[in-house]
Design brief:
It contains 11 helices and no strands. It is mainly α and about 200 residues long.
């Protein structure tokens, strides 16, 4: 996580550093990214970077978490709009991500994140839909979901359902970018899998 020194920066300087990091992580995956490029773009000495972050991975996951949390607000707004219908909400959320990520140059690092997934990346990206551990996730979701639409019997089952849906969402995003699928095809694939989950898999 960023240091207190970073959070105490003037707003304009902080925004410039964040924009420089977003630009570099959008250019290449994190393992290829260059701190030299970030500090040059931000107009700060290299030593200053280490006053704000432990290293490039620290900066990367700060940005990833920040972007995920921004989209969490969208997720809960959609849940309200769809009266707690989780599957309608996830379908629209996925459609928004399909348009938003490739359409904004500074969000290309999210595309790299889906294409170069690790356990830590998945944890960060999952904050688009929930936060904290399973108990916290269930607590926050139950106030927004229409539970009568879900065939689940416990908080534990709700946690597992969300884990399954998030995993399906992550994999579909990865296939969209790795396979260069059209938005239409990617959305159809996603809808098919969500429909299968809704119907159940046994006769």
């Amino acid at each position: 996580m960023p240091t207190l020194t970073f959070y105490n920066l003037p707003k304009e300087k902080k925004q410039k550093l964040v924009a420089a990091a977003e630009q570099e992580f959008s250019r290449v995956p994190v393992y290829e990214a260059s701190i030299a490029n970030i500090v040059k773009q931000a107009g700060i000495p290299r030593g200053s970077f280490y006053q704000y972050f432990e290293g490039k991975e620290d900066a990367y996951f700060f940005l990833l978490n920040m972007q995920a949390q921004k989209r969490q607000h969208i997720f809960y707004s959609l849940l309200k709009e769809h009266r707690g219908n989780l599957f309608k909400t996830m379908t629209e959320m996925y459609a928004i991500l399909l348009k938003e990520i490739p359409g904004q140059e500074n969000l290309q690092f999210l595309k790299h994140a889906f294409l170069n997934r690790s356990h830590r990346v998945e944890q960060s990206l999952s904050e688009m839909f929930s936060y904290g551990d399973d108990k916290e996730m269930v607590s926050s979701l139950k106030d927004h979901l229409n539970m009568t639409l879900l065939n689940i019997e416990s908080d534990s089952e709700l946690a597992h359902l969300m884990q399954i849906i998030i995993a399906v969402t992550m994999r579909n995003m990865m296939e969209k970018f790795s396979g260069n699928l059209s938005d239409k095809q990617a959305l159809e694939n996603y809808k098919t899998e969500l429909t299968m989950l809704q119907r159940g898999l046994c006769r």
